[in-house]
Amino acid sequence: MKQGEIIRVAGPLVVASGCLGAKMYDMVQIGAMGLIGEIIELRGEDAFIQVYEDTTGIGPGEPVYLTGEPLSVELGPGLISAIFDGIQRPLDVIREQQGDFVTRGVDLPSLDRQKAWAFTPLVSEGQEVMEGDFLGEVEETPLIKHRIMVPSGIYGKVKGIKQGEFPVEHVVARVETEKETVEIPMFQTWPIRRNRRVSERLMPNEPLVTGQRVLDTLFPLAKGGTACVPGPFGSGKTVVQHQLARWSDAQIIVFVACGERGNEVADLLLSFPELEDPNTGRPLMERTIIIANTSNMPVAAREASIYTGMTIAEYFRDMGYSVALMADSSSRWAEALREISGRMEEMPGEEGYPAYLASRIAAFYERAGKVKCLGSDERIGALSVIGAVSPPGGDLSDPVVQSTLKVVKVFWALDDRLANARHFPAINWLNSYSLYVENIKDFWKTEVAEDFVALRQEAMRLLEEEAELQEIARLVGVESLSLKDRLILESARSIREDFLHQNAFHPQDTYTSLRKQYLMLRAIIHFHGAALKALEQGVEMESILGLEVREKMSKIKFLSEEDTAALDVYIEIDGAFRELLKSEQ
Amino acid sequence: MYKEYLTVSNITGPLVIVEKITEVKYGELVEIETADGQLRRGSVLDISTERAVVQVFEGTSGLDVDKSRVRFLGRSQKLGVSEEIMGRIFDGSGNPKDKGPQIIPDKMLDINGSPINPQARDYPSEFIQTGISSIDGMNPLVRGQKLPLFSGSGLPHSRIAAQIARQAAVLGKEEKFAVVFGAMGITFEEANFFIEDFRNTGALERAVLFLNLANEPPIERIATPRLALTCAEYLAFELDMHVLVILVDYTFYAEALREISAARKEVPGRRGYPGYLYTDLASMYERAGRIKNKAGSITSIPILTMPEDDKTHPIADLTGYITEGQIMLSRELHRKGIYPPIDVLPSLSRLKDKGIGEGKTREDHADVLNQLFACYARGKEARELALILGEAALSEVDKLFLTFADRYENEFVRQGEFEARSIIDTLDMGWDLLRTIPRAELKRIRPEFMDKYYPESQ
Ligand SMILES: Nc1ncnc2c1ncn2[C@@H]1O[C@H](COP(=O)(O)OP(=O)(O)O)[C@@H](O)[C@H]1O
Ligand SMILES: [Mg+2]
Question: A182 and A250 share a domain?
Fold first, then answer.
């Protein structure tokens, strides 16, 4: 292996001389311990290397080994349910070998080399195949069939295909191309900073159903779409991300815990094997992959972690799955970028971030999408990406927030004031938006209900009017508002408290199907209409507000899906108003 | 033999530049001998083939370019530990300060520690009763949590921290516990307050103290919390103790870090603090926690004073982004004479959800807590409205919420410095307040708990 020599060490940055022939983003090994690093700049023969491990004890004169390969991930059976660090080292194996604290210089393959997987072929001898075609499959978990695909760039005839139990390195197929015969094992590698190719990009047009009412009904994300969740600390970014990882109807979840708390990772690891996927009834861990580079782990690996996660997510998308990737938090990635850039003494841009921050963020989110995958079956895959952003002081003018907002289509604005009043999810209904509403209207109409779009519109209108009326009430007092306006305030309150407010920790409230969301909203809007009519007919405001059915409406969120379906609040509301009108006449 | 150099070329702020060095490593511990034979210690911050940048813990005053001898010690900074460490007091660099003997170490531990493998963490879920209603009832602390006090100058954070240290107990358990206390840049009087309090309650012999006081070298503060945490890790994960770590004041710590960064002419981040302040703080805060199959734990209460009471100031802001919640002190409550002046609304305990409820505190805890938050928030809104428009402009219901907010502050939040309330008393007190609000307004409480704790007849 070629070799350079260290001439400087400054925290996570190492500079080595004598690196002629090295390429950008090549992986290197540093010193006797073989710490892993990546070349991020070349100036003449000097290579600037970001090191993925603590550099204490490393000094000038020590060797740097140039591998000549870009930093890559291993893609094959064994990914599901795994937990990796930022450069795809298996944290569970590291723990078995090294104990409870992460030490340096661990050299372990990402995928278990011993474990055998039952491989079932899907092609036969002599068949013509192209890149992306399924050669066979492995049932990795009861939920996930892991498809072994023809690697990128390979077209030819199958010359030998196996069946049976093999470890990942075992060659399961041979493909004869124009030039040669290619041996294909059960896993492949892919450089983390390079997009995996697709055959065509499509427009996202189905919602990613999350079971979170404020998201699904008001600000929906589409499968293959992008969203960001910015907010100050404690406003609920991580809970939103965890809720999506738990309940969204993606088939594969890649959760990148990027530079945040160790206990939040522990929470996922301990709860996911126990929790049931509402769509399949299987433990959530069977569809989840965790990339964890917590805040106390080396900062450069944090920079790499989101790409490691993204590449794994793309790989499953290529199999035709709907994948969702969460990055919590993209700000920590950006800070890692800033730290390394600072050490390289690059010209700082806004807030000290490098000038290329915006383009890196845009390129990252562009890897999301609904696509036609490579392969002759033209299957469809989707990769949705949701990034948390943690701006200093919650200030949305932060460069990371601003650069992110330029590319993502959904903005879930978390609000400190709502969080302080424990209105969760603390998503501000006035500032947030989704640009997918138009694309998924048809889906709502056919899959939920014809009038869902109209109900949603009405709810949004009431909330906006509430904001205006509150302004007025602050100046002149509630008592001076008209009866109709006071009713609007009450109905908007009901939308906020009975519908939008959703407790992630309540066993029933934590997830609501689209159907139940529709029933809940319909009850509130229907009540508003009936109350308006009653007011016109001279019924007292106090009697309307005193109706018992209101308390019932506020408790629907605690009912099971079946009980909600059975309950006809709609009819009860009508009954209540009939009684009211009768007694008042 | 150590490599020794007489080649200091520059001294700037807390930094010393040493030239023509060989075989020096990043992070290495350095000893500098002044012309008159004094010893200073430091560590390598940046190393290239020709020169090393060394930060000097005790400061550079009195150092000269000519005669300073620099020795590179070939290892990083370590703390010697043994069971004898209990009950001892050290300075901010880890030397005995209590006239006791040097510790004969069983082990020499790197003060920077290593990150806990997230896979090895056990999720903290044991409720710690502090006896303080605004913490236990509203923002409960659990074993293994890092829950800072966000304070301001002149607010009684020390008294609250001492009260927690005195009263903290896990219900129904008697276990080995210890307190590790680290002072960074606080005054002698403030430090002494803790020492006396530990002494009076007999906690001193179960405590280990590391003190860097206001008049001591600021750069030493970089090491102090790390020494304290290294000691805590030893007690918790090797001697199976439940350790409570109190570190005060991180604001002074961050200022020391800023000083070094400025001397290195780094691109400053917000308010001059270096861009890596987040990572640096995280490398300490994240050392709290629980580990699977280990009996001990580290619960940490870092304390910081927010300049101008501004919670968006980088120190508070970055801390809040790392720790598992925060207890926020309020100058307004303090002025009203309420002790402890804990403002529950911006306070938060992120780990509460698995620490409370049936079998831990009481089945209704989560609902009561959510409802009290909501009612208090609405009461405070009503109070604001009443300030502008007069109380008469409030609706009947809002008037009830206003009364609720007043009583909540005066009865629930306010308590004695030596008053330890049980969690059951705290929750009952919460229900007592909630009964002043009409049933239909209490939407955060499940019907079954309403029936049980809010009888129709009242
Ligand atoms: N949907 C929710 N339901 C109940 N509690 C919530 C919800 N969202 C947030 N919280 C509360 O807010 C706290 C902070 O949320 P978190 O997501 O950790 O904030 P952030 O990541 O923005 O700092 C959580 O610990 C929890 O107590
Ligand atoms: Mg978070």
Answer: no
* Gap from CA of A229 to ligand 1 centroid (Å): 13
CATH number of the domain within which A39 lies: 2.40.30.20
Average pLDDT, chain A: 94
What per-residue confidence (pLDDT) applies to A243? 96
First to last CA, chain B: 83
Residue at a domain's end among A36, A70, A104? A70
* Together in a domain, A307 and A348: yes
Mutation choice for ligand 1 from A233, A328, A416, A424, CB with most ligand atoms inside 8 A: A424
A308 and A395 belong to one structural domain = yes
Q: Which two tokens stand for residue A452?
A: 């869902």
Q: Which of A35-39, A124-128, A140-144, B174-178 has the lowest mean pLDDT?
A: B174-178
Residues of B in contact with A232 (CB under 8 A): 312, 317, 320
Q: Do both A466 and A573 map to the same domain?
A: yes
Question: For residues B147 and B351, what is the distance between their CA atoms, to the nearest angstrom?
Answer: 10
- pLDDT higher than 90, residue A201: yes
Domain count, chain A: 4
CB A123 within 8 A of CB A171: no
Question: Do the chains contact at A335 and B278, CB–CB below 8 Å?
Answer: yes
Distance B250 CA to ligand 2 centre (A): 21
Nearest CA to B222 among B388, B34, B14, B438?
A: B14
pLDDT 10s digits, A232-279: 999 999 999 999 999 999 999 999 999 999 999 999 999 999 998 888
Q: For an interface test with A, give the residue of B28, B112, B121 to mutate (most A CBs within 10 A).
A: B121
Please give the average per-residue pLDDT across A433-438, as a whole number. 96
Residues spanned by the domain of A399? 200-434
What's the pLDDT at B458?
45
User: Is the pLDDT at A568 greater than 50, yes or no?
Assistant: yes
Task: Examine residue A152 and state whether it is found in any structural domain, yes or no.
Answer: yes
Tell me, yes or no, whether A87 lies in a domain.
no
Q: Is the domain of A219 the same as that of A156?
A: no
Q: Is the previous residue joined to A329 through a cis bond, with omega within 30 degrees of 0?
A: yes
A163 located within any domain: yes
Domain boundary among A408, A434, A460: A434
CB B122 within 8 A of CB B142: no
Burial class (CB in 10 A: 0-12, 13-18, 19+), A153: exposed
pLDDT digits (tens, 9 = 90+) for A531-543: 999 999 999 988 9
Report chain B (458 residues): mean pLDDT per 10 consecutive residues. 85 92 92 90 92 90 90 92 96 92 94 95 94 97 97 95 92 85 95 94 92 92 96 97 95 94 86 91 97 96 95 94 97 96 96 92 95 94 89 87 97 96 96 92 88 73
Strand-pair category, B169-170 with B15-19: unpaired
Query: Does residue A77 have its Cβ closer than 6 Å to ligand 1?
Result: no
Same-domain check for residues A185 and A205 = no
Q: Do A522 and A559 share a domain, yes or no? A: yes
DSSP state, B410?
I
A424 in contact with ligand 1, CB cutoff 6 A: yes
Ligand 1 pocket check for B264: Cβ under 6 Å: no
Q: Give B 344-383 residues with CB within 8 A of chain A.
A: 345-346, 348, 350-351, 353, 366, 370, 373-374, 377-378
> Which residue bears the tokens 């999301």?
A368
Question: Do the Cβ atoms of A102 and B123 come within 8 Å?
Answer: no
Point out which residues pair with B298 in neighbouring strands.
B243, B289
Binding site membership of A104 for ligand 1 (Cβ less than 6 Å): no
Ligand 1 contact, A502 CB (< 6 A) = yes
- The answer to whether residues A172 and A217 belong to one domain is no
- A417 within domain boundaries: yes
CB A458 within 8 A of CB A429: no
The 3-class SS string of A552-568 reads HHHCHHHCCHHHHHHCC
Domains and CATH numbers, chain B: 3-76 (2.40.10.170), 79-354 (3.40.50.12240), 365-453 (no CATH)
Q: What's the gap in Å between the CA of A559 and the closest CA on chain B?
A: 11
The structure's pTM equals: 0.95
